[in-house]
Amino acid sequence: MAILIIFGWRVVFFTLSRGTFHCPNCGGDRAYRRRQGRNFFTLFFIPVIPLTKAGGEIVECDSCKGRWHPGVLDVPTTAQLAQMPGMLLRMAIAQVLRSGDYTDAASRSRAVAVVQQAGVAGYDDAALNADLARPFGEVRADMAHAAASLAPEARENILRAAAEIALTDGPLSVAEEETLAAVGADLQLTRVQVTGVVSMARQSSGQ
Length: 207
Ligand SMILES: [Zn+2]
Fold this sequence. Notes:
- The chain has helices spanning 78-99, 105-117, 125-132, 136-147, 152-166, 174-186, 191-205, and strands at 7-23, 28-43, 46-61, 67-68.
- By secondary structure, it is an alpha+beta fold.
- Strand 1 and strand 2 form a beta hairpin.
């Protein structure tokens, strides 16, 4: 009697991590699994011996099962995008406040109110202090990364809010002007855009 042994190989995927991403196929936030394929030697269709890695890591959408290069995770999710203007506004305001008199009560309460209006629930004086205490370089790197995904009008509005807060305690000092220029650059605005936004803020505050 002959025994038929069926053998072969197939790719088995292992999950490395899970999270939420913006699925290009579904067009929205979906759960994903980051996976790595591995070739297996199979016996009677059952993978028994692991062989080499099969290709690079992939990101698989839980909903549509679409598979993508891990670079897809760099695209912000809708939830992250919704928080981005508020987050950028906090950072822009903190940078500008730091360059002037950040103990000025009127500037501080205005800063807290503007951030709350932008939808950052529970933003208060303590949160402002925490923002003011963040390392300069860290804030700049965060801003540059976040700014890339916002429309120019949204970035101009953020700079304008920061400029108006800087103007609360009187005309802009040289340090405040320099900081607004730096924040504008971090928000990926041109010099012309920055000058325009700052002059509009001056007009509306009567300085
Ligand atoms: Zn999908």
